[in-house]
Amino acid sequence: MKSTWVEGATPPSKDLVTHILKRFTYGTTQQLVTDVRKVGVDNWFETQLDHLTISDSEVEAFISKHEMFNYIHKDINFLWPLAESEGDIAKGQIYNSNWMAGRILNLYTVIQQTHSNRQVFEMMVEFWHNHFNITTIGDDTKDGHLDWHTNDFNKKVIRQHALGKFEDMLQLSALHPAMIVSLDGELSTKELPNENYGRELLELHTVAPKSGYTQADILDAAKLFSGLRVKWPERYYQRGKKPRLEGRNTFIDISSVESMIHSERQIYGTFKVMGWQRTVNSPAEVLPAIQSLLSYLTAHPETAKTVALKLGRRFVEDVPSKKFIDDISSTFTSSKGDIKTVLRAVYRHPEFESAMGTKLKRPGEEYVSVARALNVWPNFSNLGVWKGITKDFPFVSPIIQNDLSRLGQIPLGWPFPDGYPDVATNWVNANSQILRWNTYGNFLQGSSWNQPDLGKLFPAAGKDIDSFIDGIARTLLQTDLGSADRRSIKNAVIKAFESNVNLEANLKEKTSLIVRLVLQLPVWSLR
Amino acid sequence: MNSQEAIDLCPEGRSGFSRRQFLQGVSLFGGMTILSATGVRYSFAASTNEVPDVVVTLVLRGGFDGLSAVVPTDENLMRKVRSSIYIPNSSLIPLDRDFGLHPGLKRLLPLWQAKELAIVNTIGAPTHSRSHFDEIADVAYAAYSEKDKRSGWMARFLDVTGSGSVVQSVGIGSTTKQLVGGTVAPINLNGLSNFKLDGVFGYRPEDIAGFIDETHARWTNPWVNQAKSTIQALDQIAKASAEKSTVTYPNTGTGRRLKDVAALLKAGIGVRAVDVEFEGDWDMHANMGSLENGWLTGYLADLGGSIAAFREDLGVLWARVTVVTVTEFGRRVSANESNGTEHGWGSSMFVAGGGVNGGKIHGRFPGLDEKQLKDGDLVVTADYRSLLTEILTRRAGVTVKGASEIFPNFRPEVLSVMKHLSETPLPANFPKGVMDGLGNVFYDKDALPTQAPVVAATATPKPTPTMSSADMAGVDPSPSPSPSRVRPSNTKKTITCVKGGRTIKVTGKDPKCPTGYTIKK
Hints:
The complex is a heterodimer.
Chain A: E1 4-5, H1 16-24, H2 30-39, H3 41-49, H4 57-65, H5 76-86, H6 89-96, H7 98-115, H8 119-131, H9 150-161, H10 166-175, H11 177-182, H12 196-205, H13 215-224, E2 228-230, H14 234-238, E3 251-254, E4 259-262, E5 269-273, E6 276-280, H15 286-299, H16 301-315, H17 322-334, H18 339-348, H19 350-353, H20 363-374, E7 384-387, E8 392-395, H21 399-407, H22 430-445, H23 454-457, H24 465-477, H25 483-496, H26 507-519
Helix pairs in contact in A: 2-3, 5-6, 7-20, 9-10, 10-15, 12-13, 16-17, 17-18, 20-22, 22-26, 24-26, 25-26
Chain B: H1 3-9, H2 19-26, E1 34-35, E2 41-42, E3 49-50, E4 54-59, H3 66-69, E5 70-72, H4 75-82, E6 93-94, E7 99-101, H5 109-113, E8 117-124, H6 132-141, H7 153-161, E9 169-172, E10 187-189, H8 205-216, E11 219-220, H9 222-241, H10 253-266, E12 273-277, H11 295-314, E13 321-326, E14 347-353, E15 360-362, E16 382-383, H12 384-395, H13 400-406, H14 432-438, E17 441-442, H15 456-459, H16 469-473, E18 493-499, E19 502-508, E20 518-520
Parallel strand pairs in B: 4-12, 4-13, 8-15, 8-16, 9-10, 9-12
Antiparallel strand pairs in B: 1-2, 3-17, 5-7, 6-7, 8-14, 13-14, 18-19, 18-20
Helix pairs in contact in B: 7-13, 8-9, 9-10, 10-11
């Protein structure tokens, strides 16, 4: 998204460190810029790629204080007995089903995006979850069966491999119960293989339609996956949640995930997908064939281009150049889909540097960037309580999720398999703007989040109104305020406080208004 | 002084007459050249003017199954192809000899009887990819070469003939791509009453709006350009928000959305095009429910009930509204084993409004025999752009040339689903405020597509790069219904059936009244 502005407006910063931090974090602060300059930005980036070496004690302490986060990454084998022990569908199940667990994961994700020091990792978690998108907002159309697996998918497939190898994610995602339920693998039969996964595997996860695959490719992929099933816990059947599959003695368990091959529903024969071919004659040959197809697709040059395009959109600009896609896809291919190597290539690409201020923050990013700038934490003072039989459960306040859902970007909540769109045209609309603009006021007041400590963030001591406005703008924008914008903000203070610009009177209110108006400038919404 | 001079003489900020006030005032005058918020010039010829229709698209995302909504009455064949999800004729609402309406849509029956509702069968996109993401995007662009996929068709429609109002195009829901990319940014709403700014301390909402206006005027980019329109739209939407309705809509997202659309139209603020997303996903791969209740029946009841309530709410304004349903594709003819259907191709479109050749099923249904299908899908025998062209040219003041800009590289076929504006005079009691808001459009019947004999060349969609010749070979453009549906026309009889105060006509070789109706001698 290209911008122009006139003299007196506040343009985006031209500083490379600031640019890097705007693109590879959920929002930069003056403090972060200073810290990164100290260690050197290249060193900072390398450390970010080795995310487990980064201490994250502050956010971990916050998470561990709240019991609800104990449940977010548990799978059905943990959650279902817990629900059963509650013995009451209205209490135990609601708390433990994805209806609640998914929402706790949304909140967990927002907190990590806001306060984790592992910012590049968190960005890649969001990136890959959207690439293999499965919504964490429970899905009625799957009869609630999806609810039990999505959080586990986020942990074992996405968070585990977000800075690892693309192929590991692809392999695990294909076999994970959440993907099987989400893309209707459970419904596949020998006679009518469900095409949903086969299609999205080619269209979204790997080669994309530009590669020219045909319906025959989709159908053969669907046939190969026709026997893949979720291995539901026995007690799940006992509660009548799901009808048993007939012939259940003919399963072959897949050890790494809670899935299996149902030998009677599996189609056998010779399958051809995009130049890959394999003959499968027995249940034991299915899994090796699936793994072979996914390896083949990982190595396919069109998959490299799909990933390069998406990384370009995420970190560079809405329409990445052909050169960028060629360069990054060739790194993807030569590194065999090593995500760290590919990210380094993005970071060093000349088009990354020249793309300063060209990306519009999506609403979720906008929201988190305000929280980061104001250094606020979720406000749990009004947690509800579910009266369980064996114990009470704190019930997550839905306010933050509601904010983000109104803005249209609750994290990991996109309902379709293609993930949240990542170009400005999808987010430029009137309603979204009104909501964003009102969001600034909500943060300053403090409700979903605690009230920001404005006095500490924006000290006024020894400042007159002009230097105070300039200081706030520099802290928030990491650049100097344009003269016309400064005049507009000062005029607003004059109007709102009846010409009393003395900072000794109504300092908190004045700070609040100035912060609100700085966030209201066009430059704030760019990253 | 014409309006261009007005703008030259009164540039923003130099006098008390701001451009914003000017734009609010200008739509009150017809028969003049005005400049829209972004400087596009519209010609309104006062001598051949008409009050145009507001075009409302209702997007059924996920792939709408025409065969479940408008059901062929060849029971044996339907039972054969649809197995578990087949609907017996005794449950259908009879429409004509070949089709019946799903009972979930029963609230549409009064519109059908009043000839305010038409159905177009086996209509759809020229491409047959079965991909949600490609097809819903392409239907929004309604353009099939990469260079033309820069804007949605409703955006181009308003570039050709907008009202000049900042709220001329409104989107409700997430599929507003149809409206994006034109010279005037659309307004996207999620509830009229939510569309307002909050103030802060002594700084009121209108002060915040003024600040945004002032600081954003220093920039240009798509976000900032939208912001300028958004600020202007705040006052307009507030007017609509004040409109009251006594009509009961279904208590659903879609019901609330159409209620908001009615308020927008009643407010007379110059809304010319609305893109509403049906709230819910029609992608029924599994568990679509039973005839009595469930996913499909519930959604159809919502669809029919919401349109019926919308019509009632609009009253006399209905004379200048066209509502059309849009989807990305129909669904596979045969059911799957999960009580659902897979992605397909041809579907049905519903068109309702004051200028519809209604009470009639349009389109050339090709039949359901295996050889008449394409990879198991109903073929598309009419391109949806032909219908949209007809709506725009016959109802919304678009000329042939304008239509060719809106739908590039496309030769429309005349379907005669729509009446000409000139055939439906504006009711005498049509509110003046709304009429002024809509403005007048140039309207000349001679400048529009004329009735041409239907020949194969125009009946099939034009091949595009994404459609192979093999795809085209599967399309049989001539009406070739299955043998059981071919009857000599001279053996047809029409009877009149009554139930309570309701009268319907049933035509056929041996017509029978539906359950509950008695024959009227």
